[in-house]
Each structure stands twice: as structure tokens, then as C-alpha cells.
Amino acid sequence: MKNIIKTLIFVCLYLSSGMVIAQDKTADMSINFVKADDKDACQVTITSNNKPVAEVAVKLYVKRLFGNLSIGNEVSTDENGIATFEFPNDIPLNAEGKLLVLAKVEDDENYGSMEVEANSTIGAKVNLTQLELENRSISGTNAPYYFIAGSLVIFAGIWGAIIYVVLLVFKIKKAGTQSI
User: Fold this and answer.
1) Do residues 30 and 101 share a domain?
2) One domain for residues 43 and 90
3) b/e string for 150-176 if b means 16 or more Cβ within 10 A?
4) 44: exposed, middle or buried (C-beta count within 10 Å: 0-12, 13-18, 19+)?
5) Edge-to-edge strands of the sheet including 112-120?
6) 145 & 118 share domain
7) Are residues 90 and 47 in the same domain?
8) Secondary structure of 87-137 in HEC code, one letter for each residue
9) What is the DSSP pairing of strand 82-86 with strand 39-48?
10) What distance in Å separates the CA atoms of residue 54 and residue 59, rounded to the nearest whole number?
11) Do 33 and 118 belong together in one domain?
12) In this predicted model, which residue has the larger pLDDT, 21 or 72?
């Protein structure tokens, strides 16, 4: 029994040390923005020891206020270590006119998890000083007619019920004084 426990412990330690060694490889990531076929593209390059790394799954994100916005689907690197994403140009830029772009490799069996950030100026420029503020109020002259009509019907129904109850109270009081 002791030999079985020792063997199991040895196997567990051996396997766990092998997994750690497999993830000791390091890689470098970089992001480049290019024009390809009259479209904006983002290229993520992954190298290890100055050699391209192929078949690594990369995801592209844009940092937003409450999280990361995923750009497209996961793309694997080619034999040159490059994953190319079509970059949309309709994402609103921040106040400085930039987007923070993140490229992530998540749980790769050889390289683990990696992340790199870069700023981009590709996107929709929003002029914050000339923004037209929409009036979203439903009061006064801005209210739609069906809101006004619906509100009047509801108020008339409530006040009608209150007046009806008050009239019934007076009728009950009058009926009680006549029978005595």
C-alpha cells in the first residue's frame, strides 16, 4: 500500500513538473496597423527567440469604459507568426482621438497567456463640442400625443373611481339616516 501511494505521489509530481517546463517558453508580441486592400487591418506578430511562432490563437479587443470589446473572431498565426484582423473604422475614439487595442493569447499550451497593448487612431472621430443633445423628455411640447392621451385616460379613471367611492359613502350615510 505504501508503494502505491509513493508511486502516485511520484507520478503527480513528475506530471506537474512537466507541465511547468512546457510553459517556460517565452514569446514576444507586437501590434502593427496597416492598410490592406483599401481596408484597415491590425497585424499581431508573435516571435520566440527571434523566430516566428505559428498556430497560436490570438484574440483582438478594444478597451472600452466597462470592459473589452471583442474585434472579430479568434485568428491563428501563420507560418510567419502573423495574425491579421480586419479592423473596423466605425468604433468611436476617446477624447484624445485614440483607441487602446489589446491582443491576447489565452492559455496556449506552449506559451501560456500573453497580452500586448497599442494605441490606434483608426475609428470614428466624435466632435464632443458640437454634439447635438437630443431632448428625450416626455414633458411639455416634446411629449408624444399617445403619451398625453394615455396619461389623461389613466388620471380620469383614477379620479372617477375616487369620486364614485365618495358618492357611495354619502349614499350609505343618507340611506342609514332614512331607515331609522
Assistant:
1) yes
2) yes
3) eeeeeeeeeeeeeeeeeeeeeeeeeee
4) buried
5) 67-76, 57-64, 99-108, 112-120
6) no
7) yes
8) CCCCCECCCCCCEEEEEEEEEECCCEEEEEEEEECCCECCCHHHCCCCCCC
9) antiparallel
10) 15
11) yes
12) 72
**What pLDDT band is residue 127 in, cutting at 50, 70 and 90?**
low
Between CA 27 and CA 53 the distance in angstroms is: 8
Q: Report if residue 15 sits inside a domain.
A: no
The confidence score (pLDDT) of residue 18 equals 46
Max CA separation in the chain (angstroms): 109
Say if CB 9 and CB 16 are below 8 A apart. Answer: no
DSSP bridge partners of 63: 68
- Asked if residue 27 lies in contact with residue 114, where contact means CB atoms within 8 angstroms, the answer is yes
Assess contact for 60 and 68: CB atoms under 8 A. no
Statement to judge: residues 114 and 35 lie in one domain: yes
Q: Which domain holds residue 170?
A: 140-178
Q: Is the pLDDT of residue 167 over 80?
A: yes
Tell me whether residue 80 is in a domain: yes
**3 to 7, 17, 95: CA distances (angstroms):** 6, 21, 67
pTM: 0.57
133 — pLDDT class (breaks 50, 70, 90):
low
87 and 148 in a common domain: no
- The answer on pLDDT for 128 being more than 60 is no
Same domain for 63 and 33: yes
